[in-house]
Amino acid sequence: MPVHRPGSPHPRPLAVLVTVLLSALSLALPLTTAQAASTPSRGSAYMGMGVLAHDGQNGTPSTGDATQTEGVDVSGYQGNVAWSTLWSSGVRWAYTKATEGTYYTNPYFAQQYNGSYNVGMIRGAYHFATPDTTSGATQANYFVDHGGGWSRDGKTLPGALDIEWNPYGAACYGKSASAMVGWIADFLNTYKARTGRDAVIYTATSWWTQCTGNYGGFATNNPLWIARYASDPGTLPAGWSYYTMWQYTSSGPTVGDHDKFNGALDRVVALANG
């Protein structure tokens, strides 16, 4: 028999050790699950993902404005889109997420990009930027190579750069304002070199102010697609005196993200033709 000397610890039965370990594991699991749930998986980002959380929602614009043309933007999480339903509701243009970073392509891109075209819409593609993963030029090339190109067919809009809050980490992707401006310029210059078109910039004024220092140097060449869920687009980023497109809600009919083009349908066609 084992001899226990006075003051020496008694051996713990195996059952007690198992219980302690299971209790510790049960306490750790909710924290791990919560942490995992708070950060989305890479590739799942979409246009306007951070707008509600950072800028909120304050109404919707008035309807029936003949000088504006209704549009939508879609991404992979919406799956196959009912394009004929959207067309019947008055939607005449659409943007589809093509890529994110250099690691993701939308598995529903063909149905969304070609489906909108096939019902008669003017369509374009967008890229969700991740400036903390690779350079602007690298991502522009990836975008063009995976659906973000352009052709003068009267039905294809120039590609859009979706530059907004980082859903995977720090809002400005760990970049200073000057470094962010440099990254964006790298993307835009490469996109134009590849396609002959100036890309559209999609952003929110609050993000642009925070992360670029409210830089105004892109306004001359790059159309602005402003994100604001309210009755009007509000104050625009520096340099732009008007918006070309406005994402005004994430809770519209058929698909959530609805947009206004600042002009009648002939202006949408003009942007497509370049």
How is this structure best described in words?
With 274 residues, the chain is of the alpha/beta class. It is 34% helix and 17% strand. It is built from eight helices and eleven strands. The strands form two sheets. It has an eight-stranded mixed beta barrel, surrounded by four helices. A two-stranded parallel ribbon has the order 1-9. A hairpin with a 3-residue loop joins strand 3 and strand 4. Helix 5 runs parallel beside helix 6. The longest helix is centred in the first third of the chain and has 25 residues. The radius of gyration is 24 Å and the shape is globular. 41% of the residues are buried. The N terminus is likely disordered.
Features:
alpha/beta, 274 residues, 8-stranded mixed β-barrel, single chain, two-stranded parallel sheet, disordered N terminus
